[in-house]
Amino acid sequence: MKIRRANLATTSLVALLVAQPALAADAAAAANAEAEGLAEIVVTAQKRSENLQKTPIAIAVLDSAVLADRHVVSLLDLGDGAIPSLKIAPFFSRPGVLVINIRGVGVMADSNQPARDQGVGVYVDGVYLGRAQGLGAALYDVENIEVLKGPQGTLFGRNTMGGAVSIVTKKPSGKFKSNTTLGVGNYNSYNAVTHIDLPEVANISFKIDGILSRRDGMVDNPLQGQNDFNSFDKRGIRLEALWRPTDNFSVDVAVDNSYDATSTMYLQQVTRPLGLPATATAPAIAPNFVAGINPVSATRLSAAKVGVPQPLSIGKTEGYRLGMEWDATSTLKFKSITAYRVMSQTQWDNGSADSTLSIAPTAANPNGNFLIATAGGPYQFARISVAPFRQNQLSQELEAVGEIGRLKFAAGALFYQEKVQDNAQAFNTNVVTDAAGTTFAQRQIDFNTQVVQRASYVRVTSVGVFGQGIYTPPIADDKIHLTLGGRWTRDQKQGNLFTINGALPIVPVNGVNVSAKIPLDQAWSRFDPLVTLAAEVTDDILVYGKWSTGYRSGGASSRSLTYRSFNPESVSIFEIGGKAQFFDNRVRFNFAAFTGTYKDIQLDFSGLYEDVINGVRVTTTRTTTDIINAPGTGRVKGFELEFLVNPAKGLTLSASYAKNIVTIPPTLNPFPQTGGVLIPVPVPIYQVYTPENTASVSIDYDLPIKDFNLHAHIDGNYDSGFYANYTDVTYDPVTRAVRFAQPKGDSGFIVNSRLALADIPLGGGDGKLTLAVWARNLLNSQFLFWKSGSPQGGISGFFNDFRTYGVEANVRF
Questions:
Q1: Mean predicted confidence (pLDDT) in 24-46
Q2: From CA 10, how far away is CA 7, in angstroms rounded?
Q3: Whether residue 651 has pLDDT greater than 70
Q4: What is the DSSP letter of 744?
Q5: Kind of pairing, strands 407-432 and 506-509?
Q6: Mean pLDDT of 368-384
Q7: Which helix H or strand E contains 49, and what residues bound it?
Q8: Cα dihedral sign for 77, 699, 143, 52?
Q9: Helix and strand counts by DSSP (H, E) for the chain
Q10: What CATH number does residue 634 fall under?
Q11: Quick check: is 797 in a domain?
Q12: How do residues 199-217 score in pLDDT, each as one tens digit?
């Protein structure tokens, strides 16, 4: 039996709602109590441990306590807006593959591109994770997550033009410790997390992390025996050994293995089709199909109209890390990080279960796509996309961090190589069986015998060297700091596109189209500088100005029939900022404002299952996508505010806001937009996955009660909505008037909360028990965060998750 929204933990949830006003009253009563001040936050953004308030970089930090309060299982849970400038969203309906950007820079709208990279670097203990696949895995024992905003091309290198997300895990302590959490929630969810530190033996400390987190789907799939929509099952284990043979040398070895099984999200139809261009004819059955089978609803559905086959998309990651640190002197440290990782990700995308109507393929219409159909049925629908993805990567980084007099420096070198392969196929899993378009049946399909329709392979090799120095001249009481840095990088990508439509691609050779693999062999070199001038106005106020650049590597689109290559894109950003603390560290205020240029922006343009090669129109059973570098210069600008206050003992209030504006030059769309007519002029471009306005607020309150502590947390998160596609759908070929404008996702507001009785003594020892009730999307708000549409198909999109809640117990020794 499935446990649905109102069955489990209802009493605890009501208690949580009732407790919040009482806690607010308690906070007001304690206003005259002595405030403890805000805790110091230590970051490693400049390759050394530093106070956040003394680091001239815009950084947001989430520690383990914040992650627990928000019930964060994976990076996807940060998509609700915990950090306003950071946007995380699933790639279309695939929650196991993530789209990440910071300040609207570095978006990779199509994450299934082996020869293309994201523009935000994700690191775990200094190891770069090269693919969007695998990022949905559960997080291990996190010390903190540092989100570095703006280009990080000097110290972090390639593909950090928007910024970097640096995840730091807790190291073995050498003392016996046990930290275990067990919990249950609605949608049959449960989680079990344990972190065990073992006593040091022969100067070696051991640590074991285990994770198990599962939830049933949120939208029912009527087909018996098949998975519901939007479920997850995350498991992982991590083993780490830290060897300290001497006081100044350590070796850190870590091995991890993760399993992440998800079902696709449900693509919901919101409006009916508005009609087709005059040059195309829809099958007569299409209106009946929409009325009879495809439900149209502006509110979030809990059950699909049509049942479909739904295998789980399974991501597996495995990693090996060897870290070594040597304190050569009291002011000089050498560091080495060697890592090897393997990742595989199956992707079964049947999110458009109730739509994507097509007719049976014919010689005149090999795609069977209803957009260009002129013949009769049978009419197939519920298009499923199958796209396995495999990758392995090897990286080696060497660092030297030290001080010489008034100069602090960091220098190093990096080698990175990855091998990536993908393939894909698509077909319909249901069929309309009557002329009225109201009766349907499942197609009998053997998934294992389907022909691979598209496949590619690429090997990436990147090398780089970097250096950064922070100089404090003997003036102004040593309050002025000048930072200069730079990194040289060379990227090479070699590979080929070797399958299209289940066969070799068609390429022009001496004016004649032939079948052959399409190779990719390109290399790019790049230098990214950084200049920062910072001044300590007082001991508690830092102001700075910074200029830095960053880039995302070039590549080729595996969805292109010609394996069309594209060049790197880059940003050059000037930023001013300030960090201040007041009233004995009870108030903290940070701000940053930035503006800059954005060049050669990599844009995705998709065709209607076709392209023109050497004057010959070639069709494909897969979406055709070319990636084009936008001409001219785009602009990036915005600002960020962060405010924290500790007005009374145990009470912390925080608020943050970000405004991000990205302007992209008009760009020529290479594909026909209206009945095969090419629009021969540049078209306006929307920036995707980038809300212009985002904000987050939170209240935390701790009240000591005898031998334990009452902890309450509530946060609210807002974003103004974003576009999912770069261009409007159709234009008039003569007047260029927009026939169908690109819809924008709804604005949204999400509230999360947690109430805990913490640190309850267990017996006479050191054991502590914490009991908690939590809720995500406490108010059960609903909005379409992702929208797309056309005259032929109407508007469809993905709603945010339903409310989830649960109870958990944590035991620590």
A1: 65
A2: 6
A3: yes
A4: B
A5: unpaired
A6: 62
A7: none
A8: positive
A9: 3, 50
A10: 2.40.170.20
A11: yes
A12: 999 999 999 999 999 999 9
Give the up-direction half-sphere exposure of residue 300: CA atoms within 13 A in the CB hemisphere: 18
CA gap 407, 393 in Å, rounded: 35
CA dist list (Å): 377 to 434, 668, 760: 10, 36, 67
> Is 598 within the bounds of a domain?
yes
Question: Is the Cα torsion angle 327, 328, 334, 340 positive or negative in sign?
Answer: negative
Q: Provide CB contacts within 8 A for 247, sequence distance 6+.
A: none
The stretches of 632-776 forming alpha helices (DSSP H) are none
Instruction: Give the residues across from 611 on adjacent strands.
Output: 618
Give residues with Cβ within 8 angstroms of 367, minimum separation 6.
358, 361, 609, 610, 619, 620, 621
668-688: average pLDDT: 77
The answer to whether residue 378 is domain-embedded is yes
Task: Write the single-letter amino acid at 698.
Answer: S
Residues 335-360 as b or e (16 or more Cβ within 10 Å = b): bebbbebebbbbbbbbbbbbbbbbbe
Structure tokens at 362: 């014919």
Q: Residue 106, CB half-sphere, CA atoms under 13 Å: how many?
A: 36
Question: Which positions ≥6 away from 494 have C-beta within 8 Å?
Answer: 458, 459, 461, 519, 520, 521
Gap between the Cα atoms of 30 and 26, Å rounded: 6
Q: Is residue 1 included in any domain, yes or no?
A: no
Main-chain phi, psi angles of 669, to 5 degrees: -80, 120
* Nearest one of 259, 187, 190, 198 to 227, comparing CA atoms: 187
Q: Token pair for residue 158?
A: 């390639």
Residue 405 burial class via C-beta count within 10 angstroms: exposed 0-12, middle 13-18, buried 19 and up: exposed
> How many domains does the chain fold into?
1
pLDDT digit string, tens, across residues 489-541: 999 999 999 998 788 887 766 667 778 899 999 999 999 999 999 999 999 99
**Residue 135 Cα distances to 211, 317, 652, angstroms:** 15, 9, 31
Q: Are strands 163-169 and 120-124 parallel, antiparallel or unpaired?
A: parallel
**What's the whole-model pTM score?**
0.91
Bridge partners of residue 808, in order along the sequence: 183, 772
Question: What residues contact residue 246 under an 8 Å CB cut-off, 6+ apart?
Answer: none
* Residues paired with residue 373 on neighbouring β-strands, in sequence order: none
Q: What is the rounded distance in angstroms from the CA atom of residue 756 to the CA atom of residue 278?
A: 62
Give the residue, 673 or 755, on which the prediction is more confident.
Answer: 755
Query: Residue 301 gets which letter from DSSP?
Result: -
Classify residue 144 as exposed, middle or buried by CB count within 10 Å of its CB (0-12, 13-18, 19+). Answer: buried
Q: Is the pLDDT of residue 38 over 90?
A: yes
The C-alpha atoms of residue 371 and residue 273 are separated, in whole angstroms, by: 12
Is 613 strand, coil or helix?
strand
Owning domain of residue 715? 10-812
**Residues 92, 137, 335, 116: what is their CA dihedral angle, to the nearest 10 degrees?**
-20
Quote the mean pLDDT of the chain.
88
Task: Answer for the pair 306, 222: CB distance below 8 angstroms, yes or no.
Answer: yes
> Which regions of 472-517 does DSSP assign to beta strands (E)?
480-500, 506-509, 512-515
* Nearest partner of 254 among 144, 325, 136, 171, judged by Cα: 171
Given the DSSP bridges, would you call strands 565-566 and 555-556 parallel, antiparallel or unpaired? Answer: antiparallel
Q: CA 758 to CA 809: how far, in whole Å?
A: 10
Place of tokens 């392979």: 457
For residues 249 and 277, is the Cβ–Cβ distance under 8 A?
A: no
pLDDT at 365 over 70: no
Q: What angle do CA 397, 399, 403 make, to 5 degrees?
A: 170
**Which is it for the CA torsion 710, 802, 212, 424, positive or negative?**
negative
